[in-house]
UniProtKB/TrEMBL annotation:
Source organism: Alectoria fallacina
Stated name of the protein: Uncharacterized protein
Domain of life per record: Eukaryota
UniProt-annotated stretches for the region Disordered: 74-167
GO BP: any one term: vacuolar proton-transporting V-type ATPase complex assembly
Composition-biased stretches (Gly residues): 103-115
Segments traversing the membrane: 21-42, 48-67
Biased composition (Polar residues): 143-153
Record field: compositional bias (Basic and acidic residues): 74-98, 125-136, 155-167
Entry keywords, A to Z: Membrane, Transmembrane, Transmembrane helix
Any single Pfam family the record assigns to this protein: Pkr1
InterPro entries: Pkr1
GO cellular component: endoplasmic reticulum membrane
């Protein structure tokens, strides 16, 4: 019983509806209903019937609100857990995609294997098409472009020459 009161006092300073506050609230309303019933029997006054209905309504509304609050918190926790699980799955998928390197034939080769010339070492810093979707921008007309905005054929020639040297 002493632990209940210490939990009740400490739960005053914690946000939300704690079990000890809910128990204390329900106990208080039950005691109030008993007092109103005793007063009704002693005085035969209609006022105590009305007060008893008001007390019962308030008691029900408080318990309903606590139930709704717990349901909303549970949904929030579930949504947060599902988002975290989705993020972990995306990370796992990215790890699987990043674990292989592309070969010249377009296939994916594991890091330990060796076949043909591997372009993975040359293209590690480059964006893949899936990653580049956020970075793409609309091409400007030739009149709007500054000197570094558009690639030229000579840039592609340099890439081709680098590949031929590696072979």
């Amino acid at each position: 019983m002493a632990t209940f009161f210490t939990d009740l006092i400490s739960s005053i300073f914690t946000p939300g509806a704690t079990p000890s506050i809910i128990i204390a609230t329900n106990g208080s309303f039950a005691a109030l209903q008993i007092v109103l019933l005793v007063l009704l029997i002693l005085t035969y006054s209609v006022h105590f019937v009305v007060l008893s209905f008001l007390c019962a309504g308030l008691w029900w509304v408080i318990n309903w609100f606590v139930t709704e609050l717990e349901t909303a918190n549970r949904k929030g926790r579930d949504a947060k857990q599902s988002k975290e699980m989705e993020k972990e799955q995306e990370r796992d998928e990215r790890r699987v995609e990043d674990s292989g390197t592309e070969t010249e034939g377009g296939g994916v080769q594991s890091e330990g294997g060796s076949s043909g010339s591997v372009l993975g070492s040359k293209t590690e810093g480059l964006l893949r098409p899936e990653d580049a979707q956020d970075v793409l921008r609309k091409r400007k007309n030739s009149g709007e472009a500054s000197s570094g905005d558009l690639s030229t054929d000579s840039d592609w020639d340099k890439v081709s020459e680098a590949e031929e040297v590696d072979r």
